[in-house]
Amino acid sequence: MAFLRERLGAGVSWPTVIIRTRAEREYRPDIAGPLSLFANRRGTSTTTIDGRRLSTPAGCAAVSAAGAEFTLAYEAPVDVLNVYFAGDWVADVASSVAAARRDDLERDEVPTPEVLPRLVATLAEGDLEAELRALEAALAEADSRLTVEERTLELLAALLRAETREATLMGRLSAKKACTRRELRRRLQRAEDLLIAELARGPSLDELARAAAMSKYHLLRAFRELRGVTPSRRLAQLRVRRAASLLARGGRSAEALAPVVGFSDARALRRAFRRELGVGPGAYRA
Predict the structure, then answer these.
(1) pTM of the entire structure?
(2) Complete domains list, the chain, with CATH
(3) Buried residues in 18-34 as b, exposed as e (16+ CB within 10 A)
(4) pLDDT by residue (tens digit) across 174-186?
Protein backbone atom coordinates (compact mmCIF):
# COMPACT_ATOMS: atom_id res chain seq x y z
CA MET A 1 0.00 0.00 0.00
CA ALA A 2 1.41 3.32 -1.09
CA PHE A 3 0.57 6.38 0.99
CA LEU A 4 1.71 9.92 1.72
CA ARG A 5 1.43 11.07 5.33
CA GLU A 6 2.10 14.73 6.10
CA ARG A 7 1.85 16.10 9.64
CA LEU A 8 0.49 19.62 9.67
CA GLY A 9 1.59 20.83 13.07
CA ALA A 10 1.30 20.03 16.75
CA GLY A 11 -2.13 19.40 18.19
CA VAL A 12 -3.70 18.06 14.97
CA SER A 13 -5.18 14.64 15.75
CA TRP A 14 -5.40 13.56 12.12
CA PRO A 15 -2.79 14.60 9.57
CA THR A 16 -3.71 14.74 5.92
CA VAL A 17 -3.33 11.20 4.61
CA ILE A 18 -3.53 10.01 1.01
CA ILE A 19 -3.88 6.31 0.25
CA ARG A 20 -3.55 5.24 -3.38
CA THR A 21 -3.74 1.48 -3.66
CA ARG A 22 -4.95 -1.57 -5.48
CA ALA A 23 -6.44 -4.14 -3.14
CA GLU A 24 -7.83 -7.64 -3.61
CA ARG A 25 -9.59 -8.00 -0.27
CA GLU A 26 -9.48 -5.73 2.74
CA TYR A 27 -11.57 -4.86 5.76
CA ARG A 28 -10.90 -1.79 7.91
CA PRO A 29 -13.57 -1.42 10.59
CA ASP A 30 -14.74 1.32 12.95
CA ILE A 31 -12.39 4.22 12.20
CA ALA A 32 -13.31 7.67 13.50
CA GLY A 33 -11.75 9.98 10.96
CA PRO A 34 -11.69 13.53 9.62
CA LEU A 35 -13.52 14.80 6.55
CA SER A 36 -12.72 12.06 4.05
CA LEU A 37 -13.23 11.16 0.41
CA PHE A 38 -13.12 7.49 -0.62
CA ALA A 39 -12.86 7.42 -4.42
CA ASN A 40 -13.24 4.18 -6.37
CA ARG A 41 -11.31 4.36 -9.60
CA ARG A 42 -11.93 0.69 -10.52
CA GLY A 43 -14.17 -1.95 -8.97
CA THR A 44 -16.82 -1.65 -6.26
CA SER A 45 -16.33 -1.25 -2.53
CA THR A 46 -18.61 -0.95 0.48
CA THR A 47 -18.30 2.00 2.84
CA THR A 48 -20.33 2.08 6.04
CA ILE A 49 -20.50 5.57 7.58
CA ASP A 50 -22.26 6.06 10.93
CA GLY A 51 -24.25 2.92 10.25
CA ARG A 52 -25.16 3.84 6.64
CA ARG A 53 -24.00 1.26 4.12
CA LEU A 54 -22.94 2.77 0.78
CA SER A 55 -22.08 0.58 -2.19
CA THR A 56 -19.56 2.62 -4.15
CA PRO A 57 -19.10 1.72 -7.84
CA ALA A 58 -16.24 2.78 -10.09
CA GLY A 59 -16.27 6.46 -10.97
CA CYS A 60 -17.91 7.35 -7.66
CA ALA A 61 -16.80 8.28 -4.16
CA ALA A 62 -18.19 8.14 -0.64
CA VAL A 63 -17.93 11.23 1.56
CA SER A 64 -17.57 11.01 5.34
CA ALA A 65 -17.84 13.98 7.72
CA ALA A 66 -15.29 14.78 10.41
CA GLY A 67 -15.88 12.63 13.48
CA ALA A 68 -18.02 10.08 11.66
CA GLU A 69 -17.17 6.42 12.19
CA PHE A 70 -16.55 4.47 9.01
CA THR A 71 -15.73 0.94 7.85
CA LEU A 72 -14.17 0.14 4.47
CA ALA A 73 -14.66 -3.27 2.85
CA TYR A 74 -13.19 -4.49 -0.43
CA GLU A 75 -14.48 -7.90 -1.58
CA ALA A 76 -12.97 -7.92 -5.08
CA PRO A 77 -10.07 -6.19 -6.84
CA VAL A 78 -10.42 -2.43 -6.52
CA ASP A 79 -8.32 0.59 -7.36
CA VAL A 80 -8.94 3.31 -4.77
CA LEU A 81 -7.80 6.82 -3.92
CA ASN A 82 -8.75 7.70 -0.34
CA VAL A 83 -7.99 11.15 1.04
CA TYR A 84 -8.32 12.12 4.71
CA PHE A 85 -8.21 15.89 5.20
CA ALA A 86 -6.63 17.39 8.33
CA GLY A 87 -8.87 19.67 10.37
CA ASP A 88 -6.78 22.82 9.98
CA TRP A 89 -6.75 22.40 6.20
CA VAL A 90 -10.54 22.05 6.21
CA ALA A 91 -10.99 25.16 8.37
CA ASP A 92 -8.70 27.24 6.15
CA VAL A 93 -10.19 26.10 2.85
CA ALA A 94 -13.79 26.37 4.15
CA SER A 95 -13.13 30.00 5.08
CA SER A 96 -11.70 30.75 1.64
CA VAL A 97 -14.56 29.01 -0.17
CA ALA A 98 -17.12 30.95 1.88
CA ALA A 99 -15.29 34.25 1.27
CA ALA A 100 -15.31 33.59 -2.47
CA ARG A 101 -19.07 33.03 -2.33
CA ARG A 102 -19.50 36.38 -0.59
CA ASP A 103 -17.39 38.08 -3.28
CA ASP A 104 -15.24 39.84 -0.70
CA LEU A 105 -12.05 39.29 1.25
CA GLU A 106 -13.48 39.00 4.75
CA ARG A 107 -12.06 36.09 6.71
CA ASP A 108 -14.60 35.72 9.51
CA GLU A 109 -15.13 32.41 11.27
CA VAL A 110 -17.09 30.38 8.74
CA PRO A 111 -18.57 26.98 9.65
CA THR A 112 -17.81 24.04 7.38
CA PRO A 113 -21.00 23.12 5.49
CA GLU A 114 -22.91 20.21 7.01
CA VAL A 115 -21.54 17.08 5.34
CA LEU A 116 -23.89 14.12 5.04
CA PRO A 117 -22.61 10.60 4.47
CA ARG A 118 -23.29 10.31 0.77
CA LEU A 119 -22.21 9.03 -2.61
CA VAL A 120 -20.79 11.41 -5.19
CA ALA A 121 -20.73 10.47 -8.87
CA THR A 122 -17.29 12.00 -9.47
CA LEU A 123 -17.53 11.21 -13.17
CA ALA A 124 -20.64 13.42 -13.18
CA GLU A 125 -18.98 16.21 -11.17
CA GLY A 126 -16.45 17.97 -13.39
CA ASP A 127 -14.48 19.77 -10.67
CA LEU A 128 -14.08 16.74 -8.42
CA GLU A 129 -13.13 14.36 -11.21
CA ALA A 130 -10.62 16.83 -12.66
CA GLU A 131 -8.98 17.36 -9.26
CA LEU A 132 -8.85 13.62 -8.56
CA ARG A 133 -7.05 13.06 -11.85
CA ALA A 134 -4.66 15.94 -11.15
CA LEU A 135 -3.84 14.47 -7.74
CA GLU A 136 -3.28 11.03 -9.27
CA ALA A 137 -0.89 12.57 -11.81
CA ALA A 138 1.02 14.35 -9.04
CA LEU A 139 1.30 11.14 -7.02
CA ALA A 140 2.80 9.39 -10.05
CA GLU A 141 5.69 11.87 -10.18
CA ALA A 142 8.90 10.95 -8.34
CA ASP A 143 9.61 14.28 -6.64
CA SER A 144 6.27 16.03 -6.40
CA ARG A 145 5.65 16.65 -2.69
CA LEU A 146 4.82 20.32 -3.22
CA THR A 147 2.58 19.52 -6.19
CA VAL A 148 0.80 16.81 -4.19
CA GLU A 149 0.07 19.30 -1.40
CA GLU A 150 -1.23 21.83 -3.92
CA ARG A 151 -3.45 19.29 -5.69
CA THR A 152 -4.78 17.97 -2.36
CA LEU A 153 -5.81 21.49 -1.33
CA GLU A 154 -7.52 22.03 -4.69
CA LEU A 155 -9.36 18.71 -4.29
CA LEU A 156 -10.49 19.75 -0.81
CA ALA A 157 -11.72 23.09 -2.18
CA ALA A 158 -13.68 21.31 -4.92
CA LEU A 159 -15.21 18.97 -2.33
CA LEU A 160 -16.22 21.82 -0.02
CA ARG A 161 -17.72 23.75 -2.94
CA ALA A 162 -19.76 20.67 -3.81
CA GLU A 163 -20.86 20.22 -0.18
CA THR A 164 -21.81 23.91 0.04
CA ARG A 165 -23.94 23.57 -3.08
CA GLU A 166 -25.63 20.52 -1.62
CA ALA A 167 -26.31 22.25 1.69
CA THR A 168 -27.85 25.31 0.02
CA LEU A 169 -30.33 23.11 -1.86
CA MET A 170 -32.11 22.53 1.44
CA GLY A 171 -33.55 26.04 1.20
CA ARG A 172 -35.68 24.90 -1.74
CA LEU A 173 -37.73 22.59 0.47
CA SER A 174 -41.12 24.02 1.43
CA ALA A 175 -41.16 22.60 4.98
CA LYS A 176 -41.31 25.48 7.45
CA LYS A 177 -39.11 24.07 10.21
CA ALA A 178 -35.34 23.91 9.67
CA CYS A 179 -35.15 20.56 11.48
CA THR A 180 -37.76 19.13 9.08
CA ARG A 181 -35.81 20.40 6.06
CA ARG A 182 -32.60 18.83 7.40
CA GLU A 183 -34.35 15.49 7.92
CA LEU A 184 -35.88 15.63 4.44
CA ARG A 185 -32.47 16.36 2.95
CA ARG A 186 -30.99 13.34 4.74
CA ARG A 187 -33.76 11.08 3.49
CA LEU A 188 -33.63 12.38 -0.07
CA GLN A 189 -29.86 11.90 -0.06
CA ARG A 190 -30.44 8.19 0.51
CA ALA A 191 -32.58 8.11 -2.61
CA GLU A 192 -29.89 9.98 -4.54
CA ASP A 193 -27.27 7.50 -3.28
CA LEU A 194 -29.36 4.63 -4.65
CA LEU A 195 -29.63 6.35 -8.04
CA ILE A 196 -25.84 6.68 -8.16
CA ALA A 197 -25.13 3.15 -6.91
CA GLU A 198 -27.59 1.60 -9.38
CA LEU A 199 -26.93 3.95 -12.29
CA ALA A 200 -26.87 1.26 -14.98
CA ARG A 201 -29.85 -0.74 -13.69
CA GLY A 202 -31.99 2.17 -12.59
CA PRO A 203 -33.94 1.66 -9.33
CA SER A 204 -37.73 1.75 -9.21
CA LEU A 205 -39.75 4.45 -7.45
CA ASP A 206 -40.68 1.83 -4.84
CA GLU A 207 -37.00 1.20 -4.12
CA LEU A 208 -36.23 4.90 -3.88
CA ALA A 209 -39.17 5.45 -1.52
CA ARG A 210 -38.03 2.60 0.73
CA ALA A 211 -34.49 3.98 0.80
CA ALA A 212 -35.83 7.39 1.86
CA ALA A 213 -38.45 5.95 4.25
CA MET A 214 -41.13 8.02 2.51
CA SER A 215 -44.26 7.39 0.48
CA LYS A 216 -43.76 7.40 -3.28
CA TYR A 217 -45.70 10.61 -3.80
CA HIS A 218 -44.00 12.40 -0.88
CA LEU A 219 -40.63 11.35 -2.31
CA LEU A 220 -41.56 12.54 -5.80
CA ARG A 221 -42.75 15.92 -4.55
CA ALA A 222 -39.84 16.55 -2.16
CA PHE A 223 -37.22 15.29 -4.63
CA ARG A 224 -38.53 17.69 -7.27
CA GLU A 225 -38.37 20.55 -4.77
CA LEU A 226 -34.80 19.74 -3.77
CA ARG A 227 -33.29 18.89 -7.17
CA GLY A 228 -35.62 20.79 -9.48
CA VAL A 229 -36.26 17.59 -11.46
CA THR A 230 -37.96 14.24 -10.90
CA PRO A 231 -35.93 11.15 -9.88
CA SER A 232 -36.18 9.77 -13.44
CA ARG A 233 -34.81 13.00 -14.92
CA ARG A 234 -32.07 13.09 -12.29
CA LEU A 235 -31.12 9.53 -13.23
CA ALA A 236 -30.89 10.56 -16.89
CA GLN A 237 -28.73 13.56 -15.94
CA LEU A 238 -26.33 11.38 -13.96
CA ARG A 239 -26.12 8.85 -16.80
CA VAL A 240 -25.39 11.53 -19.39
CA ARG A 241 -22.73 13.20 -17.24
CA ARG A 242 -21.01 9.90 -16.61
CA ALA A 243 -21.18 9.03 -20.31
CA ALA A 244 -19.75 12.46 -21.17
CA SER A 245 -16.80 11.90 -18.86
CA LEU A 246 -16.12 8.44 -20.31
CA LEU A 247 -16.37 9.83 -23.85
CA ALA A 248 -13.86 12.53 -22.97
CA ARG A 249 -11.40 9.79 -22.02
CA GLY A 250 -11.82 8.32 -25.52
CA GLY A 251 -11.80 4.77 -26.76
CA ARG A 252 -15.55 3.99 -26.62
CA SER A 253 -18.31 4.53 -29.14
CA ALA A 254 -21.84 5.56 -28.21
CA GLU A 255 -22.96 2.00 -29.04
CA ALA A 256 -20.49 0.48 -26.57
CA LEU A 257 -21.09 3.11 -23.91
CA ALA A 258 -24.91 3.08 -23.83
CA PRO A 259 -25.38 -0.16 -21.80
CA VAL A 260 -22.51 0.73 -19.46
CA VAL A 261 -24.32 3.85 -18.22
CA GLY A 262 -27.83 2.41 -18.34
CA PHE A 263 -29.30 3.36 -21.73
CA SER A 264 -31.10 0.71 -23.78
CA ASP A 265 -29.17 1.56 -26.94
CA ALA A 266 -27.08 4.25 -28.62
CA ARG A 267 -30.19 5.99 -29.93
CA ALA A 268 -31.50 6.51 -26.39
CA LEU A 269 -28.08 7.79 -25.31
CA ARG A 270 -27.98 10.29 -28.18
CA ARG A 271 -31.49 11.58 -27.37
CA ALA A 272 -30.60 12.06 -23.71
CA PHE A 273 -27.31 13.74 -24.63
CA ARG A 274 -29.06 16.29 -26.83
CA ARG A 275 -31.72 16.96 -24.19
CA GLU A 276 -29.22 17.48 -21.34
CA LEU A 277 -26.19 18.95 -23.13
CA GLY A 278 -27.59 20.35 -26.37
CA VAL A 279 -25.28 18.25 -28.57
CA GLY A 280 -24.88 14.58 -29.48
CA PRO A 281 -22.08 12.33 -28.20
CA GLY A 282 -20.04 12.71 -31.41
CA ALA A 283 -20.08 16.51 -31.30
CA TYR A 284 -19.32 16.47 -27.56
CA ARG A 285 -16.25 14.25 -27.99
CA ALA A 286 -14.99 16.37 -30.90
Answers:
(1) 0.85
(2) 2-169 (2.60.120.10), 174-285 (1.10.10.60)
(3) bbbeebeeeeeeeeebb
(4) 999 999 999 999 9
